[in-house]
Amino acid sequence: MTVRFTPPYPPPHATRSSLLKRFLRGWNSWIHALFDKSYTMKMGEMHLPALSFYIANELPLVRRILETDAEIFPKHAFLHDLLDPLIGNSVFSSNGQDWHDQRAMVNPAFSHTALKRVFPMMAAAVDDLLATMRARDLSQPVAIDPLATHVAADVIFRTMFSCALDADGAREIFDAFHDYQKQAQRHSMLRLYRLPGLGYQGRARRAAERIHAVFAGIVAARYAATHDRGEDILQSLIDARHPSTGAAFTEREVMEQISTIFLAGHETAASAITWALYLLARDPALQDAIRAEAGNAPLTYESLKGLTVTRNVFRETLRLYPPLSFLVRSVTCPVDMRDKHLEPGAMLVVSPWLVQRNRDNFPEPHGFDPDRFDDPAQAQACRHAYLPFGKGPRVCIGAGFAQQEALLTLAGIVASFDLATIPGDDPEPISRLTLRAGNGVRLRLTRR
Q1: What local confidence, expressed as pLDDT, does residue 83 receive?
Q2: Average pLDDT over every residue of 323-330
Q3: Which of 5, 58, 180, 284 could lock 42 by a disulfide, CB 3.0 to 4.6 Å apart?
Q4: Has residue 104 been placed in a domain?
Q5: DSSP characters for 9-20?
Q6: What does each C-alpha distance from 192 to 7, 78, 81, 199 come to in angstroms?
Q7: With bands split at pLDDT 50, 70 and 90, how would you rate the model's confidence at 228?
Q8: In a domain, 379, yes or no
Q9: Which pairing describes strands 335-337 and 340-342: parallel, antiparallel, or unpaired?
Q10: CB distance 168 to 210 below 8 Å
């Protein structure tokens, strides 16, 4: 097998970092603290002043943690602390019976994300994005991250609220979420080392409030309305009732669920679309292949099935740059894994970034090769060592939604523009809450 090229990733350190170096390297990005053996070890461990955590890379352990024994490995309180200002106690961060009850209440809302139903909304959002891009001055490099954030946020906005997201709202979300990730990351590092918080949690909370402000008015107006009901996710959440008590979500609880769906529905998709466009910009032949399979007629829901090249590019993007690079779980009872004894309260980490870049799972794992998803020799790895959406009962319910959105966006942009990279301007992956390019992705676009 020969990969098409090897895109950027932080070269792992030769040896494990000291406690101080791990702090300095992890201050801005989790993946920058990894060392060479991190990518091949079956199970590693690390002891920080506030927490012991274990990284499980071996596939049977991954399956045990995320699937077969998922009930005894719930999401860790560390994750709740990281996300609390943004999403509170919602279906993403809750555990146990609380999670089951919340999931039962929010499940009807996801009927509004049925792929055929949302196709026209997605197509309209992509058309609006393309119109915006065509109106740009393309003599200068184009920042891709804000555009990807706008289309992804616009799609989920239309699905949740039955209205489009304007450019000012999209820019505010992009800027505020970038700020939130930076502040929350630093708060977390200080907490792990039992150091004073230095106000980072407060700054993260203010950034979250900026994001909430973009849609808080819509939620409040609809929650207070006795008529003018919508047919969307927001209305389903307002109408939801607790399976045992029959109680409705309070307005604050609706905001927490909306914030969760909004975060999950736009940030991860925006990250993946940004990286996919960068990878395509490095490969003109793949751009031609995508144009050829999409044809000249407008895409329809039925025609998406034929976008094999586009789909494989997106899959390979998620393998190389999983938006959620680390999935954190809690040890709730004494347990043995391999040669290690884990006590309650310890953190278990399953890392899509590491599992999907492990050479025991994928040949030439750091290389870009969309064809690997059609390679029979890699079929087992693609089934068991590919987890950008997680696995088991907490698997992302929006996987199909994200894929459809990405296919429409990538095919639409490539049909309208030639993409090219800028020599010497390579993006650097930074892993915080999600995986983004720390210095942004800038490309040359030429109208077709």
Answers
A1: 81
A2: 92
A3: 58
A4: yes
A5: -PPPBSSPPPHH
A6: 31, 9, 11, 15
A7: low
A8: yes
A9: antiparallel
A10: no
Which candidate, 253, 286, 261, 274, places its Cα nearest to that of 318?
Answer: 274
| 197 within some domain | yes
Q: Which residues of 168-204 are buried (b: 16+ CB within 10 A; e: fewer)?
A: ebbebbbebbbbbbbbbbbbbbbbbbeeeeeebbebb
CA-nearest of 399, 437, 403 to 146 is: 437
For residues 234 and 223, the answer to whether their CB atoms sit within 8 Å is no
382 is in an annotated binding site: no
Six token digits for residue 122 = 């997605």
Is 4 within the bounds of a domain? no
Q: Which residues are paired to 55 by β-bridges?
A: 44, 349
Domain CATH for 416: 1.10.630.10
Tell me 133's DSSP state: H
Cα 113 to the center of its chain, rounded Å? 17
Residue with structure tokens 């040949």? 363
Give residues with Cβ within 8 angstroms of 417, minimum separation 6: 133, 445, 446, 447, 448
Give the type of residue at 364.
E
Asked if the model's pLDDT at residue 1 lies above 80, the reply is no
What is the model's pLDDT at position 226?
64
Residue appearing with tokens 């347990």: 335
pTM comes to 0.93
Residue with tokens 């740059």: 321
